[in-house]
Amino acid sequence: MKKSPHIFWMLALCLFIIPHLNFGQSVGVGTNNPNPFAILDITAPNKNQGMLMPRLTTAERTALGTSISGSASPNASNSLLVYDTDLQTYFYWDSGVWSSLTGGTN
Known about the structure:
By secondary structure, the chain is an alpha/beta fold. Helices cover 24% and strands 21% of the residues. It has helices at 5-17, 58-69; strands spanning 27-29, 40-42, 55-56, 81-84, 89-94, 97-100. The strands form two sheets. Strands 3-4-5-6 form a four-stranded mixed beta sheet.
C-alpha cells in the first residue's frame, strides 16, 4: 500500500502553524499594537473620542436585573455596567443588585 505524501504535508503544516497561534490574544481597535495586558485596547485615532456604555432607562435597567436574577447563575453577570439615562448615572450589577457608581443601590 502506497503512503500518501499529503498526510506528511498536512502534518508538517499543522506543526508549523499551531505554535504561531495566540489563543490569549489582545484585541485592538484603532491600534495595531494592543496592550498585551488588556483583552480590549481601544484607541481613538484623533485622541478626541470616548467610549459610550450601553444606555438604558431605569425601567429597562430594572428589567435587565430581573432577567439576570432569574438566570441559572445570578453572579454570571457581576460587573455588568450600564448608564441609566433617567437618573443620569452609571450602575453596575453586583450579587443580585444594581449599585450606582456614585454610591447606593437601586
